[in-house]
Amino acid sequence: MDSSVYVFVEDLRGEGVERVLDRISAYGVNGITVGAVHHASRDVTPHGLSRLTIRHDGAHFVPPPDLFAGLRLSPVPGYLNAFDGLREACAKRSMKLHGWTVFLRNATLGTEHPDVTVRDCFGDRGSLTDLCPAHPDVREYAVALARAVARLGADSVVAESLHFRPLKPQRSFVPLGPMDTYLFGLCFCDYCMRRATDLGVNAEVARDECARIVGGVLDGDPPAQGEVTRAALTAYAGPDVVAYARARSETVTTLVSEVASAVADEGSKLVFIDATGAVKGYRDGLPTPGLAAHDAWQLGVDLVALGDLVPAFGVLAYARDAARVADDVGAYLRSVGKDREVRAVLRPGHPDSDSTDRLVAKARGAKAAGALAVDFYAYGLVPHPVLDRIPAALSEAG
């Protein structure tokens, strides 16, 4: 069974490429998925040079000048030598190298160019981290970025945040319900409005309805209860809002298609990851009831359409329960097609896995449900004794 471990460039810089690869290869893993382009964060890193690591928005390679010449957006410089010799070091150990790429989550670019970020129903650009996939400059940037990572010699380009993102305020003392939060997070920039209008949606009515509903809650109306479903959203916000939400899938599908084609032209392949599994279970490993594949539409992800365009998918199986992991993998395969490669991304420790047996059960369940690979997230974020659970999981998964 194919496998990899997610690795940050700070891990390689801190512990050394040879040491990290030797440790990972000893687990019996087939490859590493390295953060070629990542977003800013502040992480507890138990065996890093610093126990609290500050990551900045950055592309950790020298961007090919021909790809970004004339483009308005270009990669934020990170550790430009991070991939030097890495391909050769992997090949020496018969390991694959995958380029993990965070596409549209970038506060640096958003702050420098706020007009390329999402705009809510009130006309505010309050999410400068989130680049809008409908904006032409963002789309050009994403395609060029994908080509650049593929040219690093990556066996695959692993795409994160290549879709709309949910609203996540750092503080809110207003009790927004799930549907209110969803409506508040919809983008109504000129490009999103135009695309929806071209598809026959009354975008202005949708925007006004969202502003009316969310504005009412902000003024003290009771929030909506229950999970976000199309039926519930229709009853709560009306058919124009649901139609607008559906139209977002055209934006994402066409962008992913362009990126997948660009990656293929460079001799690599795209592994598409949508964030639904993380939205549901990242905090505690107890995902909300709906399966990730069934709720991916909320981020503009049409898995059935993408199944015809993308060769491989990563499922963020962030759950404590092995049965839930199997259900999520199975639902993805039914959506994207049985002939597509599905990779289950598991967290070997807290908060999903409290023992080797639990991790083993989840790897076994993922394989039984049809996953062709199991990947482990992430090397620098968990203690070495937790990473030592990986060989048993791979052995049982076969």
UniProtKB/TrEMBL annotation:
Q: What name has this protein been given in UniProt?
A: Alanine-rich protein SCI7.12c
Gene3D superfamilies (alphabetical): Glycosidases
Organism domain of life? Bacteria
Q: Per the UniProt entry, what species is this protein from, by scientific name? A: Nonomuraea helvata
* Record InterPro entries: GH
